[in-house]
């Protein structure tokens, strides 16, 4: 039997060792290495042949999971990455999917689901559960809506407002008149249907404009 060869990258030793013990109970799975951060992972795959799947955390020291995903494509395109994370935000899921993740699992995923996903991904198929897919789609929809609301210049002004700059300071930074910034600010408030800066920051954060 050709076993599914897996490498685990997670900075919590207890979690990665527990994951390893869970996986090796299955006769068709072999854990070839366990590492604690992104740099260790990249070094490991340079010296380990025939890895089928990488189980990656996002939040790791030295190099996070996002950067690891980007590097895998150049170092070993045969490796199929599966993210296992505590983060269930749409922005994390969408970013991982965009960067080549074959699946995205939460750390509270039950073991039957994990094994099922490992076997699906090993066959070259991507798998995102309905719940994870919904979060990703909702985030991407919000991004599309947000991008259509404000002009490029208004978005730039909004970012500076969120940093606490006054109209005068923003005008100086963008080399325009204070009156121009006042007009942009008024348009932003109108488009986002808010009355003041506090409401503006709250809503812009909610719909991920900033």
TrEMBL record:
Leader sequence residues: none
CDD domains: LuxR_C_like, REC_NarL-like
UniProt keyword Zinc, yes or no: no
UniProt cross-references to Pfam families, sorted A to Z: GerE (PF00196), Response_reg (PF00072)
Keywords: DNA-binding, Phosphoprotein, Transcription, Transcription regulation
Keyword match Translocase: no
HTH luxR-type domain residues: 143-208
Domain Response regulatory per the UniProt entry, residue ranges: 5-122
InterPro entries: CheY-like_superfamily, NreC/VraR/RcsB-like_REC, Sig_transdc_resp-reg_C-effctor, Sig_transdc_resp-reg_receiver, Tscrpt_reg_LuxR_C, WalR-like
4-aspartylphosphate found at: 57
Domain of life: Bacteria
PANTHER family named among the record's database cross-references: NITRATE_NITRITE RESPONSE REGULATOR PROTEIN NARP, TWO-COMPONENT RESPONSE REGULATOR
Protein name stated in the entry: Response regulator transcription factor
């Amino acid at each position: 039997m050709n076993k599914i060869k897996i490498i685990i990258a997670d900075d919590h030793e207890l979690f990665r060792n527990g994951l390893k013990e869970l996986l090796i109970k299955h006769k068709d799975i072999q854990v070839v290495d366990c590492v604690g951060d992104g740099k260790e992972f990249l070094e490991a795959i340079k010296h380990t042949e025939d890895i089928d799947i990488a189980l990656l955390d996002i939040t790791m020291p030295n190099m996070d999971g996002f950067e690891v995903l980007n590097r895998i494509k150049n170092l070993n395109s045969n490796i199929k990455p599966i993210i296992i994370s505590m983060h269930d935000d749409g922005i994390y899921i969408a970013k991982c999917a965009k960067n080549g993740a074959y699946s995205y699992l939460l750390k509270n995923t039950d073991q039957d689901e994990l094994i099922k996903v490992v076997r699906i991904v090993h066959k070259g198929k991507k798998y995102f559960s309905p719940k994870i897919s919904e979060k990703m789609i909702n985030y991407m929809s919000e991004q599309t809506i947000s991008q259509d609301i404000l002009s490029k210049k208004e978005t730039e002004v909004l970012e500076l407002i969120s940093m606490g700059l006054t109209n005068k300071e923003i005008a100086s930074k963008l080399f325009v008149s204070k009156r121009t910034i006042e007009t942009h600010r008024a348009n932003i408030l109108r488009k986002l249907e808010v009355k003041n800066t506090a409401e503006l920051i709250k809503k812009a954060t909610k719909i991920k404009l900033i």
